[in-house]
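Example 3.2
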Amino acid sequence: MKNYSLYSSQKFLPDGNIAIDKKAISNHYSHTHCHDYFELEVVFSGCAKETLNGNEYMMRKGFFSLLTPLDFHQIHFENTVEFYNISFNESMVSKEIISTIAKDNTDKVFYLEEEELDEVISLCRLLEKENKKNNRFKGDFLKNALECLLFIILRKSNLKPSKKTTSDPIQNSILYLQLYFKENPSLSQVASYSGFNPNYFSQKFKETVGMTYVEYLVSLKASYAKKLLTSSDMSITDVCFSSGFTSLSNFMKVFKSKYGISPSQYRKQKANK
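Structure, written as tokens:
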């Protein structure tokens, strides 16, 4: 039931998990879509209107956007816009950084002052140049340069990287769920991923998160559905199944219980604002 026209899948280069492109686009309008990867865009010339999760931004020189697999956007290039586009998957940066930028309340659009923009463009050029070569330590080089780029963004947002997740199985499982909740992973699957037996994992998960595994999974799906309702014109049924719910009646029940109104009422309420 997934509306595949909404999703864009990145074909990365054969030897890596990152793509860096310098683009110049004019008179183009993209439909609302999301990606199964992370995306950075920094504008250094021209002007475009970007609608991101229902909010509009005028993307001019110095504007930088950061998109996760959970974000929906469309872009209207009003004139010739020059920008760098960097697409990457979660293996390209540390789990601490991914855990931070994957949070639903993370800022998505930033403005860079002239000096900051120069630094970012220099890093983009460095990434672009390195990605075209086949040097020794290429993967480590790209990873470190990309993380430097993301640290600039984290500074702009005043966010601090999440506490270390590499040695924390529960935090690892939370990050995994944030990225793959639409696939409805079972408690047993994620417990195995975390290295725990299901009963112990269930207990530790609730102690850490404050809700059961199922409650957290349902909460992620409901939050995503709410974003879809305001960011697309998908039918309620398509929103339901695209968010990972397997039953329309259950989706309606969960949504109303969590937000106090039905999905259609929520959409109308947002449209009238």
